[in-house]
């Protein structure tokens, strides 16, 4: 694992496996320092009596005195000498020591020396094997295991053994659920080790679900990594991830990106474009000239000049729209001309829509009211529209939910938006995400 990993535009900084293993060697592999304190972080061993040929010895591991066999004592002494001299016999001496070892404690002592030799040789495979032996001995306590598994995971990642690396990082999180480094590295391992983007996204979504347990909020980088992977591969999952992302991190910039991601992955018609831009406006996510131009154009095309006029005025006030610049100069003039006197007719139009008329004309009147910010009255018209023959229930419920969301009726908005089916359901779900973030 390189010191600095650049992936999907997100910079992740992690210690190299070698550096981590060197730390692990210091933590778990000391062969000379006595352990005086039973509460010490790691079970280091002290030679109470130097092993001699034909005789055993007693060593201290943590707060326990361990008797090692004469056979192991000799093999251990030979391995210690080889490691200290860094000679060519280390591998053979290690095999002999483990062959002589009959207890977990003896295997642990030999593995300490294996780790020291592997670190010196920059041998990732040897580091991993030594760490696995030390973990498998059962001599590390619950406080030590997370660091040991983290070191092991980084080493396996270095060796491109991604499933094994993921297993090690998952063990860390089982022992220490709030370990941020392990969470990041596990997600990274899923992406790098996946056979294809779809698999990577599925694994990242699984991580999001796991880290959402109990109402927790996964880190935003996890959403960004999943969304970036899905979007680059043009996967449908990008839409679901973007909605989940903005429901947890509803900043104007995030809303702008999420809506643009949806529009770039779908060929939206004028109505869908307008409903998405209405959402961007509600979320404070109108960012640039293109947003205001598209919004004004869509509103004028659909026959809502008053809404276009209001939006363009907001753009001018925000300093984003230059009223003397094309196409805004023309749009402003057109909106003013067509909207002249329109607002004064809204009350009568609403009464007529509720009392009679077709579903199509009633919907249009509800949308006029919406465009002028009269959300509660628009909702009343939309409800009446649903009862008229030929009403497009999904479209009307979508607009009803939008109006109720803007009027502050979260429960009513959610009920209407959840009733939307078919191709408009995705847009309704974005509005549901917006509703969920409103206090």
Automatic annotation (TrEMBL):
TPR repeats: 146-179
KW Signal (keyword) present: yes
Region feature Disordered, mapped onto this chain: 26-60
Signal peptide start and end residues: 1-24
A Pfam family this chain is assigned to: TPR_2
Record protein name field: Tetratricopeptide repeat protein
Source organism phylogeny: Bacteria, Pseudomonadati, Pseudomonadota, Alphaproteobacteria, Sphingomonadales
Assigned keywords, A-Z: Repeat, Signal, TPR repeat
Coiled coil: none
Keyword Signal on entry: yes
Sequence ranges of Low complexity compositional bias: 33-45
InterPro entries: TPR-like_helical_dom_sf (IPR011990), TPR_2 (IPR013105), TPR_rpt (IPR019734)
Source organism per UniProt: Sphingomonas telluris
């Amino acid at each position: 694992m390189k010191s600095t990993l650049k992936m999907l535009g997100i910079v992740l900084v992690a210690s190299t496996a070698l550096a981590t293993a060197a730390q692990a060697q210091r933590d778990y592999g000391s062969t000379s320092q006595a352990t005086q304190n039973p509460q010490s972080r790691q079970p280091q061993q002290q030679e109470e009596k130097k092993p001699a040929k034909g005789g055993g010895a007693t060593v201290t591991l943590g707060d326990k005195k361990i008797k090692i066999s004469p056979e192991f004592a000799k093999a251990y002494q030979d391995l210690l000498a080889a490691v200290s001299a860094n000679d060519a016999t280390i591998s053979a001496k290690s095999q002999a020591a483990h062959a002589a070892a009959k207890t977990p404690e003896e295997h642990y002592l030999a593995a300490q020396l294996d780790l020291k030799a592997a670190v010196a040789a920059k041998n990732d495979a040897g580091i991993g094997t030594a760490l696995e032996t030390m973990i498998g001995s059962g001599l590390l306590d619950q406080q030590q295991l997370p660091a040991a598994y983290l070191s092991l995971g980084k080493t396996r990642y270095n060796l491109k053994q991604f499933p094994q690396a993921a297993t090690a990082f998952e063990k860390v999180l089982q022992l220490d659920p709030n370990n941020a480094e392990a969470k990041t590295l596990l997600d990274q391992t899923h992406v790098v080790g996946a056979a294809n983007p779809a698999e990577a996204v599925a694994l990242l979504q699984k991580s999001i679900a796991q880290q959402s347990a109990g109402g927790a909020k996964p880190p935003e980088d996890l959403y960004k990594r999943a969304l970036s992977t899905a979007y680059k591969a043009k996967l449908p999952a990008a839409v679901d991830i973007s909605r989940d992302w903005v429901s947890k991190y509803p900043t104007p910039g995030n809303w702008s990106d999420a809506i643009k991601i949806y529009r770039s992955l779908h060929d939206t018609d004028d109505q869908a474009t307008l409903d998405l831009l209405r959402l961007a406006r509600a979320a404070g996510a109108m960012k640039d000239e293109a947003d205001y131009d598209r919004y004004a154009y869509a509103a004028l095309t659909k026959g809502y000049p008053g809404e276009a006029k209001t939006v363009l005025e907001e753009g001018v006030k925000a300093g984003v729209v230059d009223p003397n610049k094309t196409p805004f100069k023309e749009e402003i003039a057109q909106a003013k001309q067509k909207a002249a006197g329109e607002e004064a007719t809204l009350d009568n139009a609403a009464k007529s829509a509720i009392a009679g008329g077709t579903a199509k004309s009633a919907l249009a009147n509800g949308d006029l009211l919406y465009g002028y910010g009269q959300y509660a009255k628009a909702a009343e018209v939309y409800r009446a529209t649903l009862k008229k023959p030929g009403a497009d229930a999904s479209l009307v419920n979508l607009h009803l939910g939008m109006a109720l969301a803007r009027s502050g009726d979260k429960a009513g908005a959610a009920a209407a938006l959840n009733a939307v089916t078919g191709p408009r359901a995705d847009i309704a779900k974005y509005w549901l995400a917006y509703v969920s973030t409103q206090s």
